[in-house]
Please model this.
Amino acid sequence: MNTVKHTMKLVSDEMSTSLMPFPVDKKLCYGWAQDIPRGGETILYTGCAYQLALLGHSYDRLIPLITKIKGIEKLKGLASKVITPSKDQVERSWQILRKMATILRKTGVEFGYLYEDEPYSGAILLEMGLIDEFKEVSKKVFSIFEKYNVKRVITVDPHTQYALLRGKEMNNTAIEIRSFYEMVGGFKASGVFTIHDSCLYSRFLGLRDAIRNIVRSSGINLIEDPMITGRDTSMCCGSPIAPVNYKVSDSIAKMRAESLKKLSPNVLVFCPFCYENLKAHVQVKDFMEVVNVE
Amino acid sequence: MSNWEIAVNRAIQNNVPRVYSVLEAHKYIEDMARKVREGKLKVLGNIEAYVEETLKSVKRTGGYGYYVATPEEAREIVLKIIGDRKRIILGKSMVAYEAGLREFLLEKGKEVWETDLGEFLIQLAEEPPSHIIGPAIHMTKEKVRELIKERLGEDPGESHEEIVKFVRNFLREKFLSAEVGITGANAVAADTGTIVLVENEGNIRMSSVVPPIHISITGVEKILPNLEYAMLESLVQSAYAGLYPPTYVNVTSGPSSTADIELKRVSPAHGPKEFHLILLDNGRVKASHDPILQEALLCIRCGRCHYHCPTYKAMGSGWGVPPYSGPMGAMWSYVVYGNKEQALLCCHSGACANVCPMKINIPKVIEYIKSLYFKG
Ligand code: SF4
Model:
């Protein structure tokens, strides 16, 4: 467990200097954005979550090596050599973000983007329990929003939404934080799926019903079972504890996938981290991958 | 699938729908739960005064009450009460486990038997409990049969019924010859010094009535302002454990007595001649002064949060310091053992908070413990 302490110290140091949890080429975060104005009163904020989710697992697997390579400082060097997501993975996450931007535009929402100035939200610090460090990072995140005169932030994943809402409370700011899924609707899609709820959307952010309505009205045949996809029976994908214990995290993912498979071989998710944790065990698609945008 | 996964899935399939249907069929249970939370908060706001009131009330009933700060003190007092007596039976008590009582008494040369079936099995297996209500849920019946064959040298038979019958016969003689019965308490009423115990097997009723001396050991947080609250607590606990209505609710106020001759009250009658209540602190009072940790003390040990928790489902008793496991165990491992590392394994899935009868914001308490880990 001491390894966790050291690793989180590294993450927190990295956050306080670069506002990113790991050393990463910033282009991975903003390279998807095309023809979106810089800044604006309303911004689309990815928090680099979809993009960083591709790297998270590689870091989680590296953590047990830290003690072996004698010293956390070396993690940085090692990580930059071994951790690069594949082109396909990057393209997939970028396509999802582009689709979200297109949908928002079609819904009539005017928004901008912060490009290389977009910071990571600090979600990992919050979820791991480094509350003081998260407060510091969150302050910086909100001051960037203020610098750009942002009045409304639209997030695209549950972890970023949760981190911003907690940060808003701590920083006492009037900036409005909205989730993409609160603002859009009228999707067209088809196929038979079951649903894996994001714990945060479902039980912390009150979006369980909104998401179900979106999916059901899209034309998707959603297979549910109160013991598997119920409000309080649907289990986590295990992703949040991957940095602490990768093995337990993966066995949670496996168990979750096995129970979902009893309902359908095809699983819908709304969170990049759920996607990454479940994908080795079941056929999983982000909802954005199945909706049609003409 | 591992044996644990098979066992925990069976337990979830059996327990979760049952709790939902109990709550659906008896709507008043949620109101009772709200009332219990209110009563517990009252006590936690001034726990020292309630401990004092409880001890005075126990004395009034002819019993003996003790407040102990540490497990060591608890063990010493128990040993003093037991003296030279040898044959001890234990009803299910997590606080007895926390205080290391069984091992301690065995070391002192006593003959000690757990009488709750699950506890009896883990005693034979020398394993920690895998759940706070079903301590042996990790064992399949095949494993139980093998265990009894190996440890007691007899084949109990194959079916659930045969195994239970075997244990009943084995323990019957232990009940009848026991000199001291040690139980826990689901709730303690401050105004009357009464303990309330809820169960289905009948072992607690026998452990608390048959031996001449009854010792109840429990945590100070089990105190409720009065007997009404304490009775409600036992019913709420059994409902959220999925065991409603409970087969037995045992109410004990002091030693047995009778006034059948000329209305003069004499003690003992058929039940114990001595009743002792030991209230263990072990970090609880300190936690009651912390506005966030105080929530953890509301726990009534129903074990429901376990069955809605992904980490528990994956790790079982491997998560938490025994006897505490699951989401409540992540909180209690810190409250009584100062262990902050268990909290790190919480996925903050949030289902635990939604199903908890005491509405404990478990993820918030665990987040707080995590933050202490990184600070410390
Ligand atoms: S924390 Fe709540 S749900 Fe869990 S055992 Fe305690 S009372 Fe029951």
Observations:
- The beta strands of chain A are 42-45, 152-155, 176-179, 192-195, 221-223, 266-269, 283-286.
- Chain A has two domains: 2-182, 186-290.
- Chain A is about 50% helix and 10% strand.
